[in-house]
Amino acid sequence: MDTNKIIQVKPLGFPWETQDPFLFCAYHRDEYPEGDDRMGLDREKLAGRNIGQDFVVKDGFRMYHGSHIPGFPYHPHRGFETITINKEGFVDHTDSLGAAGRFGKGDVQWMTAGKGIQHSEMFPMLEENKGNPLEIFQVWLNLPKASKFVEPHFRMLWKDMVPEVTHTENGKTTTVNVIAGELNEVKAPGPTPDSWAANPDHGVAVFTIKMEAGATWKLPSAAKQDVNRTLYFYKGESVDIEGQKIAGNHLIQVNPNEDIVLTNGNKDGYFLLLQGKPINEPVAQYGPFVMNTEAEIQEAFSDYKRTQFGGWPWPDQEQVHDRDKGRFALHADGREELKS
Fold first, then answer.
1. DSSP-based three-state secondary structure for 109
2. What is the pLDDT of residues 143-185, one digit of tens each?
3. How many angstroms separate the Cα of 160 from the Cα of each of 130, 133, 177, 281, 297?
4. What does the alpha-carbon distance between residue 80 and residue 150 come to, in Å, rounded to a whole number?
5. Average of pLDDT values for 266-285?
6. Which of 64, 125, 249, 269 has the fewest CB atoms lying closer than 10 Å?
């Protein structure tokens, strides 16, 4: 075992532990049943749940803060970024700037909250005659003090924009989706313009990785070596990393200055990689606001109470779009992207 390459191994909790510049990471896998005529769940399926704060898996799913439609009804953010990675199901976005969208399997939404925004992320039950499984990651990336008050902005990284890198060895394949950063000279699409990840000197990388049973793959050393790098082994039996066997449901902090060879066990293995140069600034966080001092947190609450960060222009707190709308993004400037 090469102890120089693995810094730490820890069991995954909820949410997952992160390193600077990341603040938060949550993995959601919910086996939602069929939906009703309002793309939600009927009262019988909601029985016995702590509606509004339902984070305990029951019958294979959670409602989170939703009361009829699962998800996260409108809430404010300031001072950081959200990255929502969708692997299955659909997410409906609306925000206080009047922007909206629906994205699905393979799509990623990257939102810079900046000086303040309200948004909603709901999980519409589009299928009435079969299940509506959902699988997403919600990642928070910090902003430095100089960017805490930039204008809010979101960008869609559609599935066809996100590069897929494959490596086959001994007939077993590893597939990597390059959401941020680059891998083997394959570059991800750009994030939002004021993101910490927009500067290549910050070495931010976000990959999702699938390794077939028995596959071997080398994660190359980071081009920018003053970064933190964490692998989240969230699904699978076991993986051998440089001679150390690690069971599924663990995070692995690895040395960014070294190549890391992974050999997967007897079942398909799934990983998320988060990497980036630390911002190395004080972090003051309270709920949806992330600033540098407690005084700035109080200012955020005061500003939100006074302005509501633009108010809520949508009729519902649990806003979803028409069932047949399809994947789309409506931006605050009126520009619309339509996907099949």
1. strand
2. 999 999 999 999 999 999 999 999 999 999 999 999 999 999 9
3. 27, 22, 11, 36, 39
4. 10
5. 98
6. 249
